[in-house]
Structures are given as structure tokens and as C-alpha cells.
Structure prediction request, 117 residues.
Amino acid sequence: MKPQSTTDTKLKLGNLQLDLLALRVSVNGRIVPATVLEFRLLEYMARNPGEVFTRDQLLDAVWGAECFVTPRTVDACVRRIRTKIEIGRDHPSLLKTIRGVGYSLGNVPPTSRNTRR
Prediction:
């Protein structure tokens, strides 16, 4: 599923919408509070829906090389985001864990396990 760009300032992926100017996340039209890091992580993944990212890729893209954090920091951020955007935490429909690889936002084709290098 490709993100729909409603304007140059909004990304929509299913029932998730990101307002890039206001740094606002909404699900089904309901505004969801998010930190700047949570927003940046969602934005990065929403620009590449269905792509699988390793923790290290997400750390580099969102936190940057200047910041020293562990890969488990990504896990904690994903866990917080899930509590905010997912209807059922036990069966996430948007932000998925790809076991042994990392995370993906949106639909992941069953045969696709590609990661960016």
C-alpha cells in the first residue's frame, strides 16, 4: 500500500494520517499525542510503506549518528507508538514486527523480506 499524499504536507497510510507541518498524528480522524521522535519514526516508515527496516537503520535515520542510544531504544519507541495507534496491541495491523529483522509500517508482502542497505 502506497502512502497517499493528500497535499505536500500530509501523508496518509490506511487510517493513519501524518500532518508534516503540525507534527500531528491522527488515526481514524482522532488526534493521537506523539513525541517528536515518535512522529519522526512514523514519518520515516510511512514514506516507505511495507519496507522492512532493521533497528540500526531506524536508529541512523531517526536518532542520527550523533546520538548514542541502543537498538532497544527503537523497541521502546515502537511499543509506545503501538499503544497509541493500534486498535489491538496483540495483533498490530499497522506497525508490524518482522521477527529476526526489524519493523515495518503498512502491508508487508508475505514473500518480501528485503531490507534497505
